[in-house]
Amino acid sequence: MRFRAKIVDLACLNHFSRVINTIAKLAKTCTLRLTVNKLYFILSDRVANGGVSMWCELCQGNFFDEFQMEGVAADNNEIYLELMPDNLSRALKTAQSAKAVKIKLTNKYSPCLKVAVELPSLSRSSRIVTHDIPVKVIPRRLWSDFKEPSVPDFEVSIYLPLLKTMKSIVERMKNLSNCIVIEANLSGEMNLKIETDVVSVTTHFKDLGNPPWASEDECQSSARGRDLQSMAEARIDIKKLQQLLAGQQVNPTKALCNIISKRIVHFILLHEDVSLQYFIPALA
Amino acid sequence: MKCVIVGTHLRGVVKTHNLAFEECDPLQAVFAKHSCPNILRAHSRLLADIMVHFPTSQEEVTLSVTPARVCFRSYTEEDTAWFFQADFPRTMVTEIQLNPDEFDYFQVGVDSEVTFCLRELRGLLAFSEATSVPVSIHFDMPGKPVAFSVEDAVLEASFILATLSDIRSEAASQEPARCSRVQESSKTRVDKPEKPSIDEDSTAEATASKKPRWNGASGAPANPWAERELRGDPTAPHRDSAGTGGAATGEAGGRAVQGAESPYHKFHSLFFGAVSFKEKDAISRSFHSLATASDTEEDSGQTQSSQVLQ
After folding, report:
1. A129 to chain B: which residues are within 8 Å by CB?
2. From start to end residue, where is composition biased (Gly residues) (chain B) (predicted)?
């Protein structure tokens, strides 16, 4: 099992750092899956995570100047590692002026991702900062826990309002209540509601637009033939929503959510070279 | 005792600040910087740029030097224990390698690795950046203190930190290297600096035996390294096993010997002015107080005042 990668371009490095910072805000520990062409940051929906799950996919070619990977076996040419993304975020934080950043999987005393940052210095040779990030190698028999989640059989799919706006609203609502109701319909309307003993607050959005999903017979059957005005709603933990919104450092190209009433809200945030899916289950 | 600062501002506004202070016995580390084989000097900006790579929660770092390179590495006690941990074996380890060229002055007499408390150092670095003077680092083998000092026209400051002894040569001990317990007993010693007695020796020894790993001035009054220097035995092995450091202080003269007093988060060890010498060895220097109480003139010139750094 081998992995080494290198980033030389500062813009790519900043972009990668931003992705890692977003992931670090969403999960304390997550799984990094490496394949020949892609990297995935995965959080599976265990009770420990509060039922939340995440799937983030990057094309390595958009970030790395060099990328070499040899998986556990020829027919399973992938590597699954468990790590704390905050470590990676910290390692990259002070690399903003780096000449190069190299990432390598090592196993000196225990498996680590070694991040070596070459920084400019006043002397003739560069300053080298290395960070050894401890990782756990996930054995093949557990790989099935980390399969890509399928798009749920949603009732309503709707584009999200401007994330910055949504974030500031949710942050203020967080002070009043622990849970928030998201409801939306197929006419481009969405409401964010909180309700406590003393106050209820609703923010209305309209003309958001509903994404056109290619209709297949198996999925989206709940959405077909649905009354356009009828709201699908789910009550979710407001902190989880706030974490998702706070972690976004760049405005995505596309942001939408799929709602199954009283079950789950599925967020999809798409950038040019990164896609992030985040599932928040409904509260009882 | 009061220190009164009066300022007259615009429009006749007068601000008076009454600052209360207490006189205390100044404590001095018996530590001769100039006999250290390793000396580095760099602008505080360089050191700050290095320390920024370590997380703010990082307690200890190891500085390791050879004539060819300088390396700062985060220190974690987990290194030996990780085998037994089921979950994540280790915290992240960060290491910074520098070329000796980056330092204004670089002298390495002996290859060495010293581990000291980073948290305490950060305070000094912040101070140095404000005054924008270079910081000098004097150190020797592990176990001996490391001194960080800044010097400019108006002040000199020496910050002396204990370093971890070489673990290999120690008697096995289960005690974690936390100084809070030693802190208490060292406080009692402070009250009786003038009369070392057999009782105090045994207290110090009992105390030191609880602290197997932190030698030098780690809160225990014992400074075995310094004591050996004064006895004229600079080559004596400084790698103490637990307990042997304790007896040293009783012979070190009237002064209580103190260096870096932890708990680490307290900024204890900054000495402004002077590094003392054992009284018998002191070559004649003029001692004078850096501060005198204006209302008690007879206090000026007392021996309890700080000494002037040469």
Report:
1. 53, 94-97
2. 243-253
CATH number of the domain at B27-80+91-164, please?
Answer: 3.70.10.10
- In the 8-state DSSP scheme, what is residue A92? H
| Residues of chain A found within 8 Å of residue B90, distances taken between Cβ atoms | 109-110, 112, 132, 134
CATH of domain A156-214+228-281: 3.70.10.10
Are residues B97 and A127, on separate chains, in Cβ contact within 8 Å? yes
**Chosen from B53, B72, B82 to mutate, greatest number of chain A CBs within 10 A:** B53
**β-sheet bridge partners, residue A101:** A7, A117
In tens, the pLDDT along B195-252 reads 333 333 333 333 333 333 344 333 333 333 333 333 333 343 333 333 333 333 333 3
According to DSSP, residue B295 is labeled: T
Residue of B nearest to A121 (CA): B102
CATH number of A2-145, picked from 3.40.50.970, 2.30.120.10, 3.70.10.10, 3.90.1150.10: 3.70.10.10
Q: Is the bond leading into B55 cis (omega within 30 degrees of zero)? A: no
- pLDDT value for B299: 41
Among left, alpha and beta (phi > 0; psi -120 to 50; other), residue A272 is: alpha
Residue bearing the bigger pLDDT, B246 or A77: A77
According to the per-residue pLDDT averaged within each range, which of A125-139, B148-162, B208-222 is highest? A125-139
Distance from CA of A82 to the nearest CA of B (A): 9
Interface touch B92/A130, C-beta < 8 Å: no
Q: How far apart are CA B127 and CA B130, in angstroms?
A: 5
pTM of the model: 0.70
